[in-house]
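Subject: Protein entry, chain in single-letter code together with its fold tokens

Area: Proteins and the way their chains fold up in space.

Attached in line: The record itself begins immediately under this heading.
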Amino acid sequence: MPTTSAYVVVFGVALAATLAATPLMRWAATRFSVISVPTSDRAVHTRPIPLLGGAAMLVGFLVAFGLAWVSGSFTVMFESATVPIGVALGALLLCGVGTLDDVRDVSAPAKTAGIVFAGSLMHLFGVSLLFFRIPFVDGLIVLGPDLAPLISVLWVLGMANAVNLIDGLD
């Protein structure tokens, strides 16, 4: 069982790596014209905004995730090598789909296909929803091997779309 200090260290590394990556991603976004220019009345910002903030957060996540993996403090979470690889690949794909959508306005079916692909890949690597609780209902719902893949991919799709809806503003 990881100690509280192990969690604090991983959080601190994630924060520091994200803060360090943010100016680099801002520079890269400006250098390669990956920016949102306000062109409509719906735009909240009045000047161009760099669009690689998600990539900076991905860097912070991957650095902290890698530290947690090699630290030995989180052995239960990293018992098999495939699950962490699945999480990292899924995060890379989801960030890629989101960044591509920010830059090129990807159609909803194409974006959904990318998210479903990321969720499916994660499931193939062993990242799967096996059980869950419904709020305010007593008991645990256990998913069998026939429903776990479908519910896992739908969960990834639902969470990605929830974040996308929350992130409606640049």
About this structure: The mean pLDDT is 90. The beta strands are 35-36, 49-50, 131-132, 141-142.
